[in-house]
Amino acid sequence: MEQGARPGYFRLFWSWGTLAQIVSLCVFAFIFCYLCGQRGIFPLDQSIVFDGAYRIQRGQIPFRDFVTPHSLLVLYFQSLLFSVFGTSYSSYLLGAALLNVIAVVFSVRIISILFPQRRLSALSAGVLTSAWFLAPFGTPFGEQCAFLLGLIGIDCLLRALLEVDESHPTAHMRGVVVAGFLAGASFYAKQNVALFLLPFFLCTPLIVWTPDWRRVGVILLALLGGFAVALALPLLFVILSGGWQNFSYFYVLLPIATALRRFSYGQTIAGGNALSLWLAVVVVVSAGLLSIRRPLSAHLHALFAARTRLMHESVAAWLALYCLLISHFLRRSMLNNPTMADVYIGLVVGIVGALVVERDTRSAQRYKKVFLGFVAIVFAFGCFLSWQRKVHESVKDSTFAQGLPIAGLEPLRWGEPTLLFDGDLKQDEEGLDLSAASLVELVEFLQSDDRNFFIFPDFTFLYAVTGKPSPQPLLFFHRGLTYPPEYDVAVDSWIVESLIANQVGVVVLEQKSFFGTAKRLADFPLLESFLSSNFSEYRQIGPFKILVLRAVDEPSE
What we know:
By secondary structure, this protein is α+β, with helices and mostly antiparallel strands. It has helices at about 15-40, 45-55, 70-85, 90-115, 120-130, 140-160, 175-185, 190-210, 215-240, 245-265, 275-295, 295-300, 310-335, 345-355, 360-385, 435-450, 460-465, 490-500, 515-520, 525-535; strands at about 400-405, 415, 420, 430-435, 450-455, 505-510, 535-540, 545-550. It is about 60% helix and about 5% strand. The strands form 3 sheets. It has a 4-stranded mixed beta sheet. The model is unreliable at about 1-10, about 265-275 and about 290-305 (pLDDT under 50).
């Protein structure tokens, strides 16, 4: 621990002035994320948590009544917010804004644990986190929530390992168990993030306590124990609710198979957004500067020393490099917008600043302006991506003039245009423009009709908006992720049986959708046959084709 450091959990509040800065930063993180989330909706991704939380609020039980390949913990979190604040888009935005604030606080906190007196770097980490963590997406999602649990777990682990009171050498074990528990809990937000985070939790005790192998062994057992408990508790609920078979298939086996397929696509580690690669170069250069100032033997000694300044620096460098590795490998497993994987940019830049800029007074004066300029550029870039909705293809080139006149969706500023595409999105592909007027007309029609409806495939947030039940078991339609890549008659039958059981009388087919409406419908021949045999085309509202249940004596086409 550095000289003059103030021990304890609240050490990040160095002074009242710094506390005021952190509070102001949290206010910005909340407001900015909330406002970004208002700017348009990407129906596929942003329907998942909205509809899933609504299902739980209405009493549906995951893996008994519906299945999801990820985000289970997120669904319960958002369902709680719906229960407290009402089922509305404002409650949805509130969830993301709150999580963004928590991420900022723990980013500042982690840098303050590693470098207790380097305030500029800690605050810089918080500034970048406010623009890069949840603001680009704008609403709660699996990856970000898993990363947040990992962030809190890293905080607990670093406090436990680097702030040990030698008079009570086992007191830190509580923090180790909690860190393992949080790492395990992240599995129920997003499985790939949890698996990528686990090696960091397991390797960090080796860096800190080698060659005290007895202590290393106890710490690893505590970590794995907490991890196992976090995995086991939801499993017990799933088993008791009768959903074990669906859970093991849809939440474990299918996502694993999907990840393995994606890793086999032959992408390079450096693929995707170049920003993380750029930051990796910065970290390596910083490590080089560090080595010039100190002999290599000193760095090697740090691996076997307890809680010295070099130990903090070694753990910090390990954390920064590991965050960059997570970012790259996550892209390969998710095949999503690369910005989704850059949530730890604040940590990486904060660590670089602490290692180089604030290392001593002389270097601080030399590099401070360059560092602040770099932080300002990365922050501005993050704000631009978030504000312009670059993560979401359907609205990334839109303007956002006004909210929707639909109860429950008032805070949502509709993107003009909101373009719907079929299949893989391409620059030269012609999209259908869904106007706010068409969506309002569709909602009014669904609310005025007493019958339950089935919308296919992406706009499932309309179930909650209209107060109608979500009538079939798949939370969204993604071949190979929410249902098998090869035809499965059991899944197809389950969908049809659920539509019948929920007395669906209206079907809404989107003419174009992210994965292609015709392609997805062709994956379910029983469903396609059921719709053609029992429903007739009634009207067209914008890009939505409305089908209604035929009378018993009405012939099929």
